[in-house]
Design goal:
Chain lengths: 232, 232
DNA sequence: ACCTGAACACCGTTCAAGT
DNA sequence: ACCTGAACACCGTTCAAGT
């Protein structure tokens, strides 16, 4: 019933000069499917077809779909552009990571469903984690507190961005979202006048900028809180 | 292609004296399946069978599986036990929510996959949100900042707990996780001596308490950061 | 070494038909 | 009003067989 701990990253990639398809080719095709049609758009059959291959030939490169997802997930981490920790203050580096991660997730909405479900053990994820850790170390954190600080920051970013994506998708697929959603929430929140009235403070046209403001508000709070841990 | 914004919560529940099955009955059966076998354990066919009903009779009560998941998701929110905001300081209330939410998610690991994917518009979710909002209002936050504070807190809790669940499940299903995982991470993090050495600071037996400490560390940071927003 | 196709054991959902 | 069963269009994965 239990098995070895396994991950794609322990599976050797096929040598580059191999005659067959490459892992890169497969991953890129998969990302294209995901960007175009979301998580449901990626099936082993569709991916096979896209590569003009039999549906099951992918299993030569990957043990199962989970491993394929590990590969595409690491692509997300690869899109981050972080500064060298030594070149900036820790707040700048942390803040760059936060905004960049959010941007990348919003650009690849399917990634939101992968975060936390899959271990982030790919080279890009490890590289980003290392950059953050070095930055927090330079800030003055020591030992396990480096990891705690790291976890605090990434948790906040993931926790705020994941629902943001889901909501955006739901909005995107509903007709006349402005009236439709406002009306729905008003009905459901009838018992909570506070909540209902708050809805009306935000005009739907502002919704994106309110999200940005909310993100920055929380990020500043998190960074201030970490800062406080530093002087203590 | 686009449709109305829809949610189960706008669908009237069948009257209690109805001759058929009740929504409650269905939801409880679904939660039992989920607790026993996780998200993959819940299929419309299996749920039908558990209710000694045809596989498709559930569609009388619910438009689709998504709506069923909305129902079970709200059960999670219903397990929270929050204090009356007026009875405690906002830090106590916020902290109670944070620890309680984490506990509930860890107890129902399948819920981690639902968070952020589904709108939280059920009565229990709205009730909890209202409690938090009132507490932040009493603390001194005004207008949209009440929501920002609320979002910051819940984002942190979700963001740290979701990966925790996934990791715990992965550990649970691997044989000899201690050696197995340590060895794997050591191999993959070979290029990052920092990361690798950190692994060895934590003995695997401590892993649960380290998680608790990490959670509290971040929570304190978040609460301090919100506090700072209050005096500014 | 790499790929195929058939087959297995599943899914969610629709819909006509039953009571 | 409530439930059924057959059918449709899919899944991920295994495996013997091909080149």
């Amino acid at each position: 019933m239990t098995k070895q701990f396994s991950t794609v990253w322990l599976r050797e990639a096929r040598p580059a000069k191999s005659t067959g398809r490459s892992r890169d080719e497969i991953v890129h095709a998969a990302v294209e499917l995901l960007d175009a049609d979301g998580l449901d758009g990626l099936s082993m059959r569709r991916l096979g077809a896209k590569l003009s291959a039999g549906a099951t030939s992918i299993y030569w490169y990957v043990a199962n779909k989970e491993e394929l997802l590990e590969l595409v997930y690491d692509e997300i981490w690869g899109e981050l552009r972080l500064p060298e920790p030594t070149a900036e203050t820790w707040r700048v580096t942390a803040s760059a990571f936060a905004h960049d991660m959010r941007r990348v997730i919003l650009r690849h909405p399917w990634s939101a469903s992968l975060i936390g479900r899959l271990p982030a053990l790919g080279p890009n994820a490890l590289g980003a984690a290392d950059t953050l850790r070095r930055s927090f170390h330079l800030a003055g954190f020591e030992g396990l507190e480096i990891d705690y600080a790291n976890t605090t920051l990434t948790s906040y970013v993931f926790g705020i961005t994941i629902p943001e994506v889901a909501w955006a998708q739901k909005v995107a697929e509903t007709a006349y979202p402005d009236e439709s959603i406002r009306e729905t929430v008003a009905l459901l929140a009838a018992d909570y006048p506070d909540l209902a009235s708050r809805m009306n403070e935000v005009h739907n046209s502002d919704v994106d900028s309110v999200r940005e403001i909310a993100f920055s508000f929380g990020l500043d709070a998190v960074l201030d809180g970490l800062s406080a841990r530093l002087v203590a």
